[in-house]
Structures are given as structure tokens and as C-alpha cells.
What does this fold into?
Amino acid sequence: MALSCVLEPALSGFNFENSTRNIVLENGSEEGKIKAPKPMKTGTTIAGVVYKDGVVLGADTRATSDEVVADKMCAKIHYIAPNIYCCGAGTAADTEKTTEILSSNLTIFSMNSGRNPRVVMAVNILQDMLFRYRGMIGAHLILGGVDCTGSHLYTVGPYGSMDKVPYLAMGSGNLPAMGILEDRFKANMDLEEAKSLVSDAIHAGIMSDLGSGNNIDLCVITKEGVDYIRPHKESPFNYKRQAKYKYKPGTTPVLTKTVTQVELELLDETVQMMETAGSS
Amino acid sequence: MATALQFPANVSTLNNYNDLYPDWTQREVSTGTTIMAVEFDGGVVIGADSRTTTGAYIANRVTDKLTPIHDRIFCCRSGSAADTQAIADAVTYQLGFHSIELDEAPLIQTAASLFRDMCYRYREELMAGIIVAGWDKRRGGQVYTVPVGGMMTRQPVSVGGSGSSYIYGYVDSNYKTGMTKEECLKFTAEALTLAMERDGSSGGVVRLAVISEQGVERQVILGNQLPKFSTV
It folds into this structure.
């Protein structure tokens, strides 16, 4: 059902406009098959934990493009609303854009209704959108926030499935992170315990997964507000450049110099007066 | 009675990542499950395991597959997690609207028909095996099964999901008409435990619910409290 105050209207039914086109492209024509482009993954470790006063979200900061680290200080904890943040794993562009769309829609809702958005609203909007796109949007998201009904942690998968859990890890490094969380999670932890648990879980992901690395970001959300700690822990392997790579003018010798005059003919000249505050 | 075995959903080849990324990041989340519902005089007992898998990884080990559709109507979900959650949300909306229009509690048959309509119409795109159960004033406790493909039929006892294959024999030989609520609870818990023992895609805890005129009572049987059978 469409919310009347949300910018993106919900389409009725299922939208399979592009599926025939995709099948035709994949199977190819007489000229040859067209290979689908490989989307860039963030190869990530993200985790979240519900503690006594709220939610702690954590993420690593490495974005990879195949084997190269594309971004060493990528921000994977996205703002959704003042009381809701979202960690994204999967295709970088998809998580970025999906969370931006979600954030815009919730802001419009807030302005229209005068209420703070609830975490379950964000989850429902995400589920609707991702289910409609049938898994084509590669966004594996962890949503955490505190609203008038309490502290909540949800995960939404790329096909539109949702789970509500007290602790969670996602991304390519989620297996080692989940190991740490399963071992040490307790209900109603206090803040320092929760922060160190999430930080250790992300650290385990960084150590054991090639796609995760660099620094650890944390985001603590409580009823009072949000503490976005970026970075919480810096990687001890930060590489400092050993030398300067700027070249002085004159480093490249000039061998020959030729100057050619270009003949230009003035064809037409028009003058247009601009309306400025001074002229009126 | 067709049941959903665990096989890959119709994933578009655009999502085929290379071998650097593990299998469970590419697979759709499936409930690969065991669900069950039994009628008794005065209501129904429904039960499910709690495991959700993405390929070989257990994405959620404490899933709740017993989803309320209305005050005294529940559905047990098996198959693709995304598909069944979306269908259940859609039917909850439609049934709620219908109930307000009618100004009375909806019938279980109505809920089951709504599921069947959606599952049959979109049968090529969906992978969902659903058991609808509840209590209404007209016919008492009822169980309707809507397996993959979109058939609907009423049965006194119904099992579904990938783990159901292992317990057909147990259910057929142990089911008796005229069981009491406690007997049904014990029967369901034991059947689910046996399925969870043998099926890799089922496990975790056993979630049970009793729906009757008085309302809904839910219980959870944790792993160490499950009934024990002899291990050969």
C-alpha cells in the first residue's frame, strides 16, 4: 500500500520490465553474447548489537574493486534519520543509493506528519523496494535505531527478506565476526562492553577476510542522541608516503617548439543586455 | 502434497559474482524448513523450526516462521524468506481491509483463498509453501495447505517444508482423530524434533502456538528441552 506522503509511489504488482531484455542479452545474438558487467562489491564486515540503552553499529572502512583497495576510508554507516543509521554491505553503489532514497523518504514523512520515523517504517520501505527489484539491487543492510518503541536491530537482504535480531553481522567477513558475537553477546550489556564487543567482531572480520580492512567505525545510537565515532580504531598498518612525488618545472627538457597562427574571421557580433539589480 | 525441497531460486545470472566471494553471499535466503499444523476440537496447534539458511550458512537461527495474519489466523512459512514475507504482508493487509468492511472476524477459508490467489497467479516468480491455520466461529479449528504451485486444500493435519519429507511416515502412523490439545502439542513437538534431527535445513528451536476461541498461546521449546529419541 502506498504511503501518500512518501516521494516514491509504490507500483502495483511485480515489475519484470527488464527480465526479457536481460535473458536476450545473456543468451546472445548471432554477433555474440554480451557479458553482464560485474558490480563492485564492498567486501565488508559490518555488525550491530542491541545493548541496555540503545544500539551499537560497527563497520570496517575498506572498499575493494576486485583485488585493489578502491577506498581506504569508506563510510559504510549511512545516515537514515537522526535516530536511525544503516550499515551496508554488497554492491557499493546500491547500498549508497538505497540508503539515500530511504533517508529522503523518511525526511519527507517526518516533515509531513511531525513525527520521528520509526525503525520498523524504514524496514518496511526497504523491504518493499528490494522485493520489487527481485534481488537486482545488491544491498545487504543492517538497520539499527532507537525510537519511541525502544531499541531495534534489523537486517534486510537483497531479495527483500527481513530478520529482527539482538545481534548481527553481515558482509563477506561476517563468519568470523559472528563467531565473536555468538561467544560474547549477553542481553543488556553496558556501553563499554557493547562497544568493545562490536569492535572486536569487526576486528575479527578484518583479520580473517581479505575484503575487509583498514579502520573500524562505530556508531552508538541512544535515546539521547548519536555518537558517530569515525574512526574508533585506526589500522596500525597505515602507510605513510616515503618521498615527495612532485616534479619541479623544467624536469622535462624541451627539444623543439613550433608556433602556428590560426586565422579567425569575425562573422557576427551581438550584444545582449543582462537584467541586473544595478541596471533596473 | 507437493513440498518445497531446497534448490536454488531463479537467480538472475547478473548476480553471479566470481569465486572470490563465498557461496552464501550469492544465494537467496531460504527458510528450508519444517512446518506443521494439526486441528483439534476447539482449535489448531501449529509449529515450526527456527532455521533460515543462505546456501550453507544459517542466516538466522531463531527465526519466527509462525506469522500472525489476523487475531486468530496464523500462517506457517516455508520456501523463500523474501517471497513468503512479502506474501504474508500483502495478505495481512487484504484480510484486515476485508474484515473491517465486513465488521466481523474473517474466516480461515478466506485467508487461505487470498494466499492461494496470490501464490497461483505469480506461481512462476514465487517459491512459497504456506500452511494457513486458525479458529473461526463458523467451522472451528481449520488447517489449509497452500503448497508451491498454488493449490489449496483443507487437511486435518498438514506438514510442509524441506524437512517434512522425513516425517510423513511418523505423522501418518501417529495421527488419530479426536486428540486433545495437549496430545496435539506433544505430537507436533515430536514430529518437528524428528524432522530437525534428519534435515540439515531445519533446526534451532521449536516454536509452537495454539489458536482457539480464547486466543493465541505461544511457546518455545529450546534445543536442550526437545524430546529425546534413541540415537543409534
Observations:
- Helices of chain A lie at 19-27, 92-113, 119-132, 174-184, 191-208.
- The mean pLDDT of chain A is 86.
